[in-house]
Amino acid sequence: MLKNKVALITGASRGIGKGIAEAFAKNDANIAFTFASSVEKARAFEQELALKYGVKVIGYQSDASNYNAAQELAEKVVADFGSIDILINNAGITRDTLLMRMSEEQWDQVINTNLKSAFNLTKACLKTFLKNKAGSIINMTSVVGVTGNAGQANYAASKAGMIGFTKSIAKELGSRNVRCNAIAPGFIETEMTAALNADVVKGWVDTIPLKRGGTTDDVANACLFLASDMSTYITGQTLSVCGGMLM
Ligand code: NAP
User: Which of the residues 93, 181, 206, 235 has an alpha carbon 20 to 30 A from that of 163?
Assistant: First the structure.
């Protein structure tokens, strides 16, 4: 589905990003991915993907929350791969606590890593998309960006911001054949959610109509659809991948 396409995926050393990178490589895309600090994991993944699927794969250590680093990254990816066709703004963190206890640092870290990063990377890739007169941008938001969640004011605000950003970019760039959509995962089993205690997890699962947490493949398959030419008339949308949690 993605033959000869170049995908830039932020935060793909583990979790959802890793699942997306694997699904895209399986569908013949060349993969540029980033990570924050997992150097060994990233190097091993780079080799594994390239060997398994015979595509070009490079992992870059690059802080998505840093504007200048994003500009440098996009330049490097274009130099290494020739172009960028798909951008997945996936890198994200949580710093959960009630507002009463939330520090300014916890607020800023989450907003910068989850939301400012989407601005940084989208802006950095813009020149290439406009030159190509094509592009697909996918922003990883969350169901809590729509519903809100106690203890996650910073995270929910960052994810709600991403939805507004997605719709605005879809309106700005639609005439240039650049699409921008968001995916809102529900409860997906990754290291991010492994930190939650068993009672919290059971509480989440009980509220999900499909009665299970999602897998990284569930999210990756939705990304594959939105990245590919299967969705050329879809832009500005938020697709929930949440087992029916959000209706
Ligand atoms: P995860 O397992 O914690 O993985 C996070 C990834 O982001 C890692 O590759 C990490 O790199 C990278 N990262 C973190 N900060 C970064 C930065 N400043 N610059 C570049 N990369 C950075 O998370 P996940 O569960 O896969 O979540 C992925 C995305 O889906 C996030 O945006 C999250 O908010 C969203 N999401 C997840 C769920 C869920 O249930 N898991 C639900 C809804 C939405 P290192 O390995 O180097 O740290």
Answer: 206
